[in-house]
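Justification of computing resources. Each target in the renewal requires a structure prediction run like the one illustrated here; the chain below, 139 residues long, is used simply to show the kind of job we budget for.
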Amino acid sequence: MRQGYPNNYTTVLLYAAPTHRAGKRLRRIVDQLVTEEHKEFYQSITRLTQRLRRPLGERPIGVFLARDADELATLLSVRDLLRDLRVILVVQDHKEDTLSLAHALCPRYVTYADGDLDDVAAVMGKMMGKHGRDRGVGQ
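Resulting structure tokens:
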């Protein structure tokens, strides 16, 4: 049996360090919500940028973990490539400066890496036309 929801049109791009606690959690969430052929994982901004320069398909979603201010600034430097993505942004801290930078990316949703990230599963589910919490997704 296939894991994840059938997803005929949405590509989900996850940018996160696999060794980061929140990165591992985000990977599990994406694995549970999205079928194999519609999810892509990136650990470097270079690879992500290369991918963003190619067609993404219909209604793509980007889930990005910014581990620090430098990584957030790097994402900001390629924000023109993100304009067609529905972005979910996970930031490391609750500082006002961080949130200000985060909102410059025009994400659909911003949350914090120190949370349980179930909210990310719910937002992704809604973006994909599913209700993740109702189906036990992300647990």
